[in-house]
Each structure stands twice: as C-alpha cells, then as structure tokens.
Write the structure tokens for this entry.
Amino acid sequence: MVNPVKKLTLFSFPTWKSIFSLLLLLVLVTIQNSALSQPRLDVKIGVLAKRGQEIALQKWSATADYLTASLPGYHFSIVPLDFTQIHTAVQEAQIDFVLANSAFYVELEKLYGVNRIATLINQNLPGRQTTIFGGVIFVREDREDLKYIQDLQGHSFMAVEQRSFGGWIMCWRELHRLGIDPARFFSSLSYGKTHDAVVLAVKNGKVDGGTVRTDTLERMAETGSINLDEFRIIRENKSENFPFKLSTSLYPEWPFAAVRTTSPALARQVASALLAMGQNEPAARASKSAGWTVPMNYQSVHDCLLDLRIGPYKDFGQFTISDVLMRYWRQLALLLFVLTIAVFTSLYILQLNRSLRQKKQEVDELNRTLEEKVLQRTEKVNILLDQELYLREIMETVARVTGLLLSAPDLKMLLQEACRVMGEHGHYGYSWIGLLEDGLVDTIFTTNDSIQFPGKPPYDPIDPDDPFSSTPAAHCMADNQTLVIEQSDTIATVSPWLDRAAVTGYRAVIALPLRADQYTPVLGALSVYTLRLEGFEQEEIAMLEELAGDIGFAISSFRQKQMVAKLEMERTENYEETILSFANMIDHRDTYTAGHTLRVAHYCKLLAKELDLTDEQTGVLQKAATLHDIGKIATPDSVLLKPGKLSTLDYELIKLHASAGYEMLSNITMYQELAEIIRHHHERYDGMGYPDRLQGKGIPPLSRIIVVADAFDAMTTNRIYKPRKAIPEALAELQALSGSQFDPDIVVAALKVFKDAEVPEAINQLPKNQMEQRRFSYFFSDKLTGLYNEDYLQIILRNNKELQEYRCLHSLHIKNLQQYNNGQGWEQGNILMQKFAIELQILYPDMLLFRAYGRDFVVVAREHFKINKEKLLFDSLKGTGVTVEQDHLDLKEDTAYYIDKLEKIQFQCGVETSPSL
C-alpha cells in the first residue's frame, strides 16, 4: 500500500503549480519575441543638403542611428534634400522631421507650420560650444585702404551663396541697415559656394572683401589653412561669451523641427533623445556639434528676413494684381470680353479702309510711272552689263593672286607678287600690304616703291602721335574690320598716305584686315586704291574680302610653319633640361634615394667606358640611370620612406616602381627608349627578376648594366639594419652572382673598374633634415611620450662607431613609479611620464631624447655636458614621490655600444646582447 501513495504524490498540487508557471513563462516569452519581431516604424529626417547628398549623409547619418538606438520601435533615416525638394517634402508630408539652416526653417515655419523641438549646439573647434552664430566681414590685413564698410564701395566682394544665412543674408542685413544696396555698392558680387573658398579668395587677392559665417576663420586657422593675423575684421562686433570674430547680429543655430503631421508623442520622444545626446557621442562628433539644447527663439531670424523682404516676406505689404484678380475676376472677365469684341471690330474696319486706299494709290502710281519705269529698266540693264564686265576683270585679278598662294615659295615673295598683280589691274592705281609684329607695322610690301612713306617703319596704328594712325589701314587694323573711304568733292582727298594737297586721281580706298579667320586677331592689312569714278562695288568688296582672308590664312600658315620649326628646335634643346627636372623630382622625394641615383649614373659611366660603348649609348645609359627610380614617385611614402627592413607586402609594392616608371615615360616619344631600359633594370640573368622575367640576352643591354651598378651601390651603402660591405666584399658577391643575377660579361668589367671606385663612407639612411627626422619619428616614436624609442637608440649607438656624431650620453632611471601607479592609477602614471617627457624637451631642445623600456629616459648630445644633482629635481616630479637616478657615459670613438636591459638599461660595447625581460 506504500507504492500507490508515492505515485499519487507525483501529481500533488505543488507539481501542477510548477507546470502552470512554466507554461505561463513560455507564453510571455512567445509574446515578447512576437513584439520584438514586429517591424520598426520608419521615420524620415529631411536634411537641407546644400553641399551635396554625400556630405549630408556623412554628417547626419550617425544622428539617425543614435535616434534608432534610443527609441525602440522606430527606425530613423536621413533624406538629403536640395532647396526645391525640401519644400515639396514638407508640404506633402514625405518626411517626419526637417533639419535646415535658421533662415530656411523660418520660411518652412511660416509656409507649412513646422515646429522646432531642439536647437543645435555647434562645436567646430574643441572647447568652443555655441548655440548662436553670426557673420563676419573681412579683408586682408595689408589692405590699409579698407578699414570700414564704406571703404568697400566700388570693390569686389564675395559671399558663400545667395541663400546662405550666415554666409550672406546676415551681412546683407547689416548693409541694409546702413542704407547700402549691394548690387550698386560693390563693383562685383560673386559667390564662392563654400565658406573656405571665400576665405581663400580674399587671402589670394581674387576679391577685395568677403563674408562667411562665424567660426570659419578660427577653424581654418586651427587646421593651418590660414593665419588669423592675415585678415582684418570690418565693423567688428565683440559680444560677451561669444568666442569668434563677429561683424553682424547673432542668431540661433540650426533647429531640429517636426512637420505638421508628425505625432506629438513621437516629437517629444525625439526631443528628449536629442537633449540627452552628449558631446562625446559618435553622432555629435560626426555633425561637429556638442549635441542639442532646448529650442531657441527664432524671432530675430523672422525680423532679418522681414527687413530684407525675402523668403516668406518677399511680398509683405504689397497689393498685387493677383489680389485684384481674385476679388474682381468675374467683372474683369466680362469687361475684357466686351473690350476684345470692340477692338477686333474696330481693327477690322480700319484694315478694310487702309486696303482700299492702298489699292487706289497703287493703281494711280502704276498709271503715272509706267513709261518712266521702262526707261529706268533699260538704263539699269546697261549699268548691270558694264558692272558684270568690270567684276569679271576683278575676278581674274583675284584669281591670279589666289594662284600665287599655291606657288609662292616663301611669304615675302607671295606678298610682293600679290601687290604687283593688284597694281596691274586697270582701275587699281596702287596697293600695299603691311604686316603687324608685336602690335606695330614693321614690314611693308607695295606696288610702287617710289611712293614715300611717312617716316620709316615701324608704325603704330593706335598711337595718336604717329601720323600712320590716321590712315585707313591703321583704322582697319585697330578695328579688325573692312574700311572704305570715297572722295566726297572735286578735290581728291584719297591718297595712298597723308599728302592730301596733291591731286592723285584716286577716287576711293579700301583697307581689308588680314587674318587666319574672322575670329582670330588681325595679322596686317591690304590697302587698294581705285581710279574708278564709282568707287568699289559691293560684289567687288566681297571678292576682295575673300582674297584678304586667303592671304591672311597663307600668312598664318607660313608663320605656323616657322613656329613649328622653332618649337622642334626648342624641344630638342630642352631634352636635357627635362631629364634633369625628372631627376630633381626623385631628389625631392628622398635625399637618400637622390644620392643613390647620382652614384648609379656614375658607376654606369665607368662600365660604359670599359665596355667600349659609343658616346651616344653612354649618354642614353646615363639618362636612364638618372631616371631608373622615377617610378618610386608612385610608391607610397610608408614604403619608400620606411627606414628599416621591408615586409613581404612592402617589397611587392616597391617592385611596382619599374613598371610605374615605364608607364610614366613610354607615352612621351623622346623618352620611349629610356622607358624600355628603366622597365627592365630589375630583371635577373636567370629569368627570376621582375616585372617580365626576361632572361639572359633577352634583357636590354643597357638594363643589364644598370642592374650591376644598382646592386654595387646598394652593397656599399650603409642601411639602418644592414651595414655596408667593403669594396672587396661587394666585388666578391658580384662574382658569386655572375650568371644567376648578373650578366657575366658586365661582371667582368665591374670587377675591373669598381675595385678603385671611391665610395663615400658617410652614406647612410639616418635623417639629414627636418622632413626625414619626422619620418624617423613616425617609425621610431614612443607611443606614450612621442620621444624616440629604444629601437632607434640601438641604431644611433651602433652607427655612431662609424659616423662619430655623438660624444655624450646620460641615462635617467625613474624610481618609485610602481608605487605612484598603485596609489594614483596607471592613467595618472602615464600622464606623469608625458609631463616628464615635455620637460626634457624644454630643457634639452637640441639633443636626441629617448624613452626605453618604460622607466628609462636617455639624452644623447653631440658635445659633452653635465647634469648636476640640482638639475635632477624636475618640476614635473615634485610632490609625487617619484625620483630620478642618473648615469653618464662618454661615447668613445671607433666603439659600438649596445643596450642590455636588466632592472634598468645598461650600455655595453663590443657585442650586442638581447634585451632581458
């Protein structure tokens, strides 16, 4: 009877209660998962993308992500909108919120009832947070003539955009308050599109003054783009607690606003999330802000737009025609209909009367003049016949001159013969051609050399003091158009030059510009004098103009041939200078590479002489050697300027320089031969080189020479991680690699000429100037203090044996740092080490400073100096309990020193040991 009782206890009340609780828990989890699986509601934020969609997305997408994370159940996205799209998006409720500049917000508020919920806290510069901004008017500091706004009258001025609130509208309002109309006040008003472009335009003198929003000058100065001292602020307005240069009134920053259809509950949640955004949030950093604050009063913006009658106040106070039409359109429509019928009826009657009178006059005129017209027609036919015969003669003369254009061997003969042929025409008593050279008529060709010119050339066609300037030819050249002068009375007033007292018999003169085409500058003038009483016919003028065009085209062609020949000569002469310019490009990239290039070129010259190359081949070889590393211009600085051993990836990148040099030069005809040599200067004789794995004699001969010279210089040059070889060692390695890496014939020549080569012993990769010191600082910098690290200290000590640049070393061991870290924390300990490093830099500005293995600092100097006990009491360590223990070492000549790390760093000479941990 015991067992049944035990079975019944399995289904007792507590057990059923547990099962029920478990089922309830499963139901709640299912409901929660179902709620979480519900799709988020999309919320769109329209952003005024005045600088393009991409920049708007980069700046505000993080804010959308922040709101998405802050408000469960909603997904926020950014919609970039331009000036026209944003109106449609707000009016049609395509977006839920809008973010725009203050002026644009006021317009949307006035037109569509958007409502601000937060105002941006701007932070373009660290530690400078503002919720208001203004505009600044500025000129260059050296413009002593521009100190007040009135001084800008008649000068050029630049703003950002017409609709930019801080970049133009604020400045415009200040001008409006002074009664200044910008369109008439400035000589020119242009727009730079961006604030930075306006500042640079003023700085570079492209415009006299400009305006941008506040904080632009300070931000550009912070990045080093400008110097604030280069600019003078016009009408400077210093406002308390506002940190930037200012010329205008202050206005609230950009607002974040909800459109009319947005749920108030959602707007409150968004406002709360924005106000909770901290300045260190990714969204704040992306938008260059310190978050958001409660919405400010934008009445000042309304007042600004109202003063200028722009935006929503464009038509404020005006009673327009549209208002009249809306109120009285029925009466006006009826009146217009009646007037239209009356006008058309009157016009129809007037037209009928005019037609009747005109027809009557025509009939009377035909009856009266019929006989007279018959006589005139007969006379006209005779005149046309004579004119046709005359024009045929002109055409023959023009055809003869045109033939000269094809047969004349040079320009001088062409123009002289053209004048002669024109003079043989029966009615042309005289013709001449003058050519312009640098604005002066310097060359003259005439029909009759006996006619005296007014003085000797050159003549100035535009100088009123030159008698020639009053001639028809001078006016023709000055105006670049045909000029015809006819005799107006019985006394001849047309003469070839200026002798108006003598009767010459000429009735008219035509001066025609000589030019390659009608759109190019004048090259000279053709002048023709006629004895014909009627002067020049229109058809004749057209033919002469066409002839002048042909002559001008021929002059241009002859001159272009001369110019092409001159350019070809200059191109050949500048070939050597171009080679040197390319070499200079390599020099400026890396001074070590530059020295290597010159040495390789010198070694190639020695090999060329030994191999009996011609002078021409030697010249090509030296040019190729000078440029063999030109492709390294395309090599990243992080690889080319790396002062140590290259990784596999580094080596693969630097191998591309051979192909890069070929690509740079192969498209230039005069460099194609050099490009082919440079492409293969890293091929190996056994075919294992690059880039094309050429083998043996398949490698260009001059490339095989550069390979040997390049390798010899690399062997005999100090590298940071590899000391140079002595000449005998380098020659032994060349011989060992003969037939595998190098051409055996060239190695034989190298063994002979390189044995007496002079290799400068001081060649190394240590920094020689400020740029290279910064490069070494990049690769050998202590991450905490910015001083050099122990790796670079090892290099300095090892290389000093040969270079002997440094004589004195002091090591400073930091004691009790562990206790300080235990009490204050590791972060405070790091700050203490940074302060100590800064104090060392101030005390020893001209010496090398190192931080090694955390607690050791080293000072290396070129000359001996002492550090007394008093100097060990550093200000940065006072009151911290941290002290300094100092050791001194005289760096002896011809001695290499190495670091041994035990409790503190120790220096040994002779043998390099691995640091102890």
About this structure: The chain has 30 helices and 25 strands. The radius of gyration is 45 Å. The first helix runs from residue 2 to 9. Confidence is low (pLDDT under 50) at residues 1-14, 498-503, 911-917.
